[in-house]
């Protein structure tokens, strides 16, 4: 819902949540920002032209105090911002609650090593040369989108506390958690098309190692399937993305989600005996429900970890 403003209305020290930020170029090649701003009563598009960039601080997920003027161009109302600054106060909480946030995780499966031709086998062994032994390397097809594919995606809506799992399956599967619904697909292309359709309804995305694995895997597989993605991940990262593996780390290394769950008192998603490296084997014996339940537990655990990080660990120095 759009916020009701009048053309030429002056905006002075008004607070908005930044929900989208895109760097664009004018016809002369100068940088400017295209923004989407939110208040509890609705949203409005905004621009920061090149001459005002130095007077503005903007970051997705942050509340800004803005000054500017409402512009009406061909019936499209937008805010032209002259200056703005990020507001660090308790007031931000009522705005942040409106930011539609999805937590997601993917599961992948790979071809059998023997299905690869000789050149592909050699290349896989090169990619996995750090593996402890050759047999371990042969089982790594699922981590490479050129040899594997997406078989399940778990998503959890933090605002509504509801989840959905998209899964490749030859039969009906039933959620173990009543907060989830499961949707099944006969092929990867249909599954990915549904994912990006849902994806575009959200403004912020939380993952664990999503910038390093989930996003690039999804984008490459989408390209292989000739599916248009919602946006490009610049350097496999984006200001729309909160990757907890990058937020909770020490000495440049991230921890396994399983062990962070133990440390933070979160139910371990692998506690039911399923691990990510077993997904291909489970799929091959038609254990589709086990895969879907596993990815659902993963996004719930990631959601709980995110809420802890957000409340206690996300303060700025």
Describe this structure in words.
This protein has 317 residues and is of the alpha/beta class. The protein is 29% helix and 31% strand. The protein is elongated, with a radius of gyration of 22 Å. It starts with 9 loop residues before the first strand and ends with a helix. The protein has helices at residues 92-96, 118-127, 134-138, 188-199, 210-224, 244-247, 257-264, 279-284, 288-313; strands spanning 10-25, 31-39, 42-48, 63-73, 76-87, 101-110, 148-157, 162-168, 180-185, 204-207, 241-243, 249-250, 253-254.
Please specify the SSE layout and strand pairing.
Elements: E1 10-25, E2 31-39, E3 42-48, E4 63-73, E5 76-87, H1 92-96, E6 101-110, H2 118-127, H3 134-138, E7 148-157, E8 162-168, E9 180-185, H4 188-199, E10 204-207, H5 210-224, E11 241-243, H6 244-247, E12 249-250, E13 253-254, H7 257-264, H8 279-284, H9 288-313
Parallel strand pairs: 3-5, 6-10, 8-9, 10-11
Antiparallel strand pairs: 1-2, 1-4, 2-3, 4-5, 6-7, 7-8, 12-13
What about the largest sheet? 6 strands, mixed
| Mean pLDDT score | 89
CATH secondary-structure class of the largest domain: Alpha Beta
User: How does the helix and strand content classify structurally?
Assistant: alpha/beta
Radius of gyration: 22 Å
General shape: elongated
In total, the number of domains comes to: 2
Q: Based on the coordinates given, report the CATH architecture of the largest domain.
A: 2-Layer Sandwich
N- to C-terminal separation? Answer: 35 Å
Kindly identify the CATH topology of the largest domain: Nucleotidyltransferase, domain 5
**In percent, how much strand structure appears in the residues?**
25-35%
**Number of DSSP-assigned strands:** 13
Unreliable residue stretches: none
> Which homologous superfamily in CATH is the superfamily of the largest domain?
Ribonuclease H-like superfamily/Ribonuclease H
């Amino acid at each position: 819902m759009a916020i009701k403003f009048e053309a030429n209305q002056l905006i002075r020290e008004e607070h908005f949540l930044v929900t989208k930020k895109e760097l664009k170029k004018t016809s002369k090649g100068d940088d400017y920002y295209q923004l989407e701003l939110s208040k509890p009563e609705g949203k409005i598009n905004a621009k920061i032209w090149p001459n005002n960039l130095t007077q503005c601080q903007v970051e997705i997920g942050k509340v800004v105090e803005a000054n500017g003027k409402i512009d009406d161009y061909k019936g499209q109302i937008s805010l032209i911002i002259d200056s703005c600054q990020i507001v660090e106060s308790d007031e931000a909480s009522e705005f942040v609650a409106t930011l539609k946030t999805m937590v997601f995780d993917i599961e992948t499966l790979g071809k059998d090593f023997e299905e690869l031709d000789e050149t592909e086998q050699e290349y896989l062994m090169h990619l996995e040369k750090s593996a402890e032994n050759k047999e371990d390397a042969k089982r790594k097809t699922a981590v490479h989108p050129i040899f594997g594919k997406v078989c399940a995606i778990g998503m959890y809506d933090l605002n509504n506390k509801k989840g959905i799992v998209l899964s490749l399956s030859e039969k009906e599967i039933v959620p173990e958690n009543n907060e989830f619904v499961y949707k099944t697909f006969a092929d990867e292309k249909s599954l990915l098309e549904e994912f990006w359709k849902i994806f575009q309804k959200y403004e912020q995305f939380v993952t664990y190692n999503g910038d390093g694995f989930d996003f690039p895997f999804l984008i490459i597989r989408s390209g292989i399937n000739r599916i248009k993605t919602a946006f490009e991940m610049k350097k496999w990262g984006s200001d729309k993305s909160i990757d907890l593996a990058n937020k909770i780390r020490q000495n440049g290394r991230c921890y396994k989600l399983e062990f962070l769950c133990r440390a933070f008192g979160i139910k371990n998603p692998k506690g039911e005996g399923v691990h990510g490296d077993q997904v291909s084997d489970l799929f091959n014996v038609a254990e589709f429900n086990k895969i879907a339940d596993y990815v659902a537990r993963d996004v719930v655990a990631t959601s709980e970890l995110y809420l802890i990080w957000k409340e206690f660990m996300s303060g700025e120095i």
